[in-house]
Design a protein that fits this description.
The chain is 27% helix and 8% strand. The protein has 152 residues and is α+β, with helices and mostly antiparallel strands. It has one domain. The protein is globular. It starts with a strand and ends in a 10-residue tail after the last helix. 38% of the residues are buried.
Length: 152
């Protein structure tokens, strides 16, 4: 499960175009549904997400979301190509809103949003999908042209 950017006002995307920026910072996340309002405020402020301890806020109103097929059990595979898609999608949405520097702080995952989810978790021998890694890769991508591909 992966969630990315909703627009700043929390409006849902109704077409293929991003909604216009509003007054508050758009949030990127890896997982919507119900989560913690304190986490949402931290992400909007681009502070490190807190550990969720309650589920009192509808994340579907605050985040863009997309799914990456995986059981989330720490055993199912996470191919590198899937992680690359997560990173590219996050960076593309941040770019579309004009947030380059610091934008990766707006990317969060299920585990950071709600205490009701168990993913994303890396499995041995698979791509590292810890959110610290995802955010670092998004930041790297934002420092380069969209067509950039990192050296292996």
């Amino acid at each position: 499960m992966f969630e990315v950017v909703r627009n700043r006002s929390g409006q849902q995307r109704a077409s293929g175009k991003l909604p216009p920026p509003a007054t508050t910072r758009t949030v990127c996340a890896l997982a919507a549904g119900t989560g913690d309002d304190d986490v949402l405020r931290a992400v909007i402020a681009e502070r490190s997400p807190l550990r969720p301890n309650e589920n009192n806020t509808d994340g579907n109103r605050a985040f863009y979301e997309f799914e990456c097929v995986n059981r989330g059990d720490g055993k199912d595979t996470r191919p590198f190509v899937q992680r690359d898609a997560m990173v590219r999608a996050s960076a593309a949405l941040l770019r579309a809103h004009g947030w380059r520097r610091g934008g990766s702080a707006s990317v969060i995952g299920h585990l950071e949003w709600t205490n009701q989810k168990i993913d994303p978790r890396p499995a041995r021998g698979n791509a590292d999908v810890r959110m610290s890694t995802i955010r670092r890769l998004v930041a790297d991508r934002l420092d380069h042209a969209p067509s950039w591909f990192p050296k292996k």
